[in-house]
Every structure is written in C-alpha cells, then in structure tokens.
Amino acid sequence: MSRFRMYPTPVQRCDLFEHCRHARYVWNLALEQWSMWRRDQGPTPTFTEQCRQLTAARAASDWLRAGSQTVQQQALRDFDRAAKSFYSGTHRRPTWRKAGQREGFRIVGSQATRVVRLNRKWAAVLVPKVGWVRFRLTRAIPTAKSYRVTCDRLGHWHIAFAVVPPPIPAPGTGGVVGVDRGVVVSAALSTGELLLCPQLSEAEQARLKSLQRRLARCRSGSSRRRKVKAAVAKLFARARNRRKDWVEKTSTELARRFDVIRVEDLRIVQLTRRPKPKPDPERPDAYLPNRRRAKAGLNRAILANGWGGLVRRLQDKGPGRVEKVHPAYTSQTCSDCGHCAPENRESQAVFRCLACGFRAHADVNAAVNIAAGRAVRARRETPVRVSLKREPQRATSQ
C-alpha cells in the first residue's frame, strides 16, 4: 500500500475519530452475531441482512445516523470478508476492536477517487462528512479504488491507498548475498556488512522503565493510569515506526543490489513461543524452573530486530529471488575449509576454526555459508570448500 501522512484540522480530527467509533461499533456488533452461532441454531445473518439491520439501526439511533453510511457499511463488508478468509484458512479468526487500538475505517468506490493535488508537496482527499483533508506528498499519488484512514498510537493520521506496488527489478549482475539474522547484529551480509536495526535510545529506555513502574502503581480505571498507559504506548509506537522504516529501506537496498537473496528458514512464531511449564515429579502442584524470564528477554530481542518483517518485505519486493536455506550448523561451520564443530565459535562475535585457523566475524561467517546454500544437515556432512576473500567490515547502521 502507498501510505501518506495526513494533517487534519482539530475539527476534522474529531470527525475522523467519530468515523472510527462508528466503524468499531458496527464491526463489534457483526462479530457478536457471528460469535453467538450454535449448532442447534440457524445460520448467522449474511452481509445483505446485516445491511438491512444497519438501515433500521440508523433510523432508530441519532448517533449512527449522524455518521457516514459508507463507513459503516464498509465495516460490515470488511467483517464479511474477514470471516470468509478465516473459513478458507488464509487468515486468523476476527477479533474485537478496542478503542485506541487499530483505529481506522475504509472508503471504497467513487469516494476513493476524489483526490486533488494542491501543489508539489500537498494533496487533499475528500472524506465523507469530514471534507477535504490534506496529506503530505512523499511519492506519486496512485490510482486506487479504495483507501484506509488510520490513527496510530502517536496520534498521527495516515491514509493508505490499496494498490500493489510493482516489484523491484533485479540488477542483472548475478550477485548472490546471504543474510544471517541475529539479536546483537540485526542482519549480517555475506559481503561483510553488519546492519543494525535502530532501537530506543538510552534516555527513552529509562523513561519507558519509569513509566512502566508508574503504571504498576496506578489504580485500575483511573485517569492517571489511562494517561500513563498512553505515554507507554507512544514509546512502543515510536520503536515500531523506526523498525518498520529500517525494514523498508534495508529490503529495498538488498533487492536493488542483488539478484538472489538467501536467508535462513526460521520459524519466528515457534522461536518466540513461551516455554512450557515443567511439573515437579517430587512435589505435587509445584513446577521446576523453566527459564521463562530469560526466554522472554530473547523473544523481545528477536521481535525488536524485525526478523520476520525483513524477509516478508524482501519476498514482496523481489518475488522469486528470495531463497530459504536450512539453518542447521550454519554458525558452527567454517566457510573456508568446511570444518564443523561447536568449539569453532569462541563467542557471539568471534569465529575461529580449530582445523585451519580461519578467523572472521561469526555472523559474517554464517552469512557466507547461507549465501553458498550449503546447509549442513544433522549428520554434519563436510561441504564443498569455499573461500572467503573479503574481510568483514565495521558495523554500519542503516
């Protein structure tokens, strides 16, 4: 999607929030009807029947009638599509929409084409019952049949046009790169480059820790708790925006520089799953330590480095050019002689082969193995000898 930052006036901002409330209310009503289905009852109302119910509800409620019927009817259509996608097995089960989370609505049809360009930097879109809302031009305005207006945790409004951008063409140089994803180094390339995903600064981390402590002392349901919770959400949203910006820029650069991009075939959902409790066989109703706190820290670090988002955007921008390699023993195998042993990796950053004495950055060595496509299986086969000619460069943040 092509996403732009919107700058509504204070009055328009209130009207946009009202549209979000209407869309959330209608969505939750449709979800409630769908969730109340039982085997001994008849089928749930269809989209056509729900539209008739919406017309009757608008006639009986002044609050709904004051809103846009286009926004409310589109919320029903979106839920109908979400339910069909769930039954087909392509998407997850629809969930409840909460205030302050996933705020937004969608406009489809002739209303979505009402976009005018004001000058070189600004354009405006006509939102039903809101008026012309300005947004900042950062790229060409696409031709789309629908758009979605959203508000993030920072209070920023965005408009996203539903268009599929064209894939990035391959450079045609025959270049192959391996990408090793890690916690300390977000992405290590086989060329020796170390890419770091931007995180919260030390001052922001200290403020986040202070706010979380203050949140734990607040009374449930109080105004202070609501304000502190909003401040915590803003910091998390800031980190998420930085991570998304890094993923977009890094994936675009890799798709433009290389013809083939090889990554580890990692299952992020299984890697970030919390450990199961270990019952104590000697004491009933007791459990053994399962290192849950340490695993929680590792899960946060994996998610903060955008492992899944980077590969997903690479597949979107370079379809057919992303290859997944089995990750077994790629960090323990010497990329120069092929010797595989756990002792080869002295530390997190140092790799020294015990057989030939080859030294390199551990993540770069793994990236070279990934680029060669030589995934060492569980029986530890000795792969073909491949030499590493380039020296690892210093860590650079992009």
> Proportion of β residues?
15-25%
Q: Roughly how many Å apart are the termini? A: 23 Å
Total tally of structural domains = 2
Strand order of the largest sheet: 14-11-8-9-10-17
The averaged pLDDT comes out at 87
Poorly predicted regions are: 375-398
Helix content: 25-40%
For the largest beta-sheet, the strand count, sense and barrel status come to:
6 strands, mixed
* Total beta strand runs: 17
* Helix segment tally: 10
* Rg (CA only): 26 Å
Helix-and-strand structural type = alpha+beta
Mass-distribution shape: globular
Order of helices and strands: EHHHHEEEEEEEEEHHEHEEHHEEEHE
Helix and strand topology:
Elements: E1 2-6, H1 10-35, H2 47-60, H3 62-65, H4 69-88, E2 103-108, E3 115-117, E4 122-127, E5 131-136, E6 146-151, E7 157-161, E8 176-181, E9 187-189, E10 194-196, H5 202-217, H6 223-257, E11 260-264, H7 268-271, E12 278-279, E13 287-288, H8 292-304, H9 307-317, E14 322-325, E15 350-352, E16 359-361, H10 362-372, E17 395-397
Parallel strand pairs: 8-11, 10-17, 11-14
Antiparallel strand pairs: 1-7, 2-6, 3-4, 4-5, 6-7, 8-9, 9-10, 12-13, 15-16
